[in-house]
Structures are given as structure tokens and as C-alpha cells.
Amino acid sequence: MGNVTYSMTMSLDGYIAGPGGDIGWTAPDDELFQFHLEQVRAVDAHVCGRGLYETMVYWETAHENPSLPDHELEFARIWRALPKVVFSRTLDSVIGNARLVREGLADEVSALKRRYDGDIAVGGAGLAAELTRLGLVDEYVPFIAPVVLGGGTPFLPSLERPIALELADARTFGSRVVYARYRRA
Prior knowledge:
By secondary structure, this protein is of the alpha/beta class. The chain has one domain (3-184): 3-Layer(aba) Sandwich (Dihydrofolate Reductase, subunit A). Helices cover 28% and strands 30% of the residues. The protein is built from 5 helices and 10 strands; from the N terminus they run E-E-H-E-H-H-E-E-H-E-H-E-E-E-E. The strands form 2 sheets. It has an 8-stranded mixed β-sheet. Helix 1 (30-41) packs parallel to helix 3. The longest helix is centred in the N-terminal third of the chain and has 12 residues, at 30-41. The two termini are 17 Å apart. The model has no long low-confidence stretch (mean pLDDT 95).
């Protein structure tokens, strides 16, 4: 049975994007990028919403730029091969190893959990909020950046009741970003 993991960089006050959608503060340094590279190697499939898909579609053609550093070319290679399910009611099409789905989020993610044994990464705050409310997220993996934004797009939604978690792993990087992996208790 697959493990649904929601991971994004967030500010200390819990936002993945600042007011106006600014994510410029989330760019990883080389050490953190290498860690992300290792993390994505372990992912069996990626589920994302429209916004994250549009941000990440860059990696579908990044390999065409020979001036990119080797670690970015490697990320592009891994990303292109990774099966992706994109949930959107507004996109007309997706490219690469991606499939566009318009509805049936719970059924689709449940089917992915049955199909894969490893991690199924979820990206995008709106999509992750719905999966959280449906009880389908098994692990929360924030990368906490040393910045306070004061508002923006929250990492987690408002909930009717708490979700008990236990810390499974943690690490602090030279950039002062803190990685934490929490599992449902």
C-alpha cells in the first residue's frame, strides 16, 4: 500500500506562498537541492494541482538547456520519468508523463495507494488541503524556511478536529531550513 506524502517549503508562520503568491524565498541552495533530488528519486508517483504543475512543467524541458548544472539535469531526468497525476478543472492538457484528471480525487488517490508500494508525493496547498480533509495524507513533510511572511497561502487547511502526528525524521540544513517528516500517529 502506497504512502501519501505532502511536502512543500513553508515559512515559519506556516505559509507556502506569501501575499500575492510570492515564492521567491523558497529557492533551495545546492545542499537542499541535492536533498530534494534524493527525495524525488524515492517517489513512485506525484499528484499535483494546477498551480504546482504549472510551476514544475519547467522540468519537462529543462534537459534541453546544456548549461544547467549536473544536479539540475539529473532532477529534470527523474522528474520527466516520474508518473504524474494533475488535478485541474481549468487546464486543457498536460505534457510528459502526466495524466489530467478533473474529478474523483478520493477515488484516484485511493487507487494510486493500491497501485504503488512507495511514496506518492502530493504537491499544492489546495489539493493537499482537500486530501487532508479526506484523511488520505499519511505523512506531512514541511521544509521550514527561516522567514516570517505574515500571510499568504497556508501549508495546512483549517480542520474540524486535530490530526495526531509523530515525528519520524528531522534535519537542519546549512541554509537554516529545517526538514521534518511527521507520520499519522
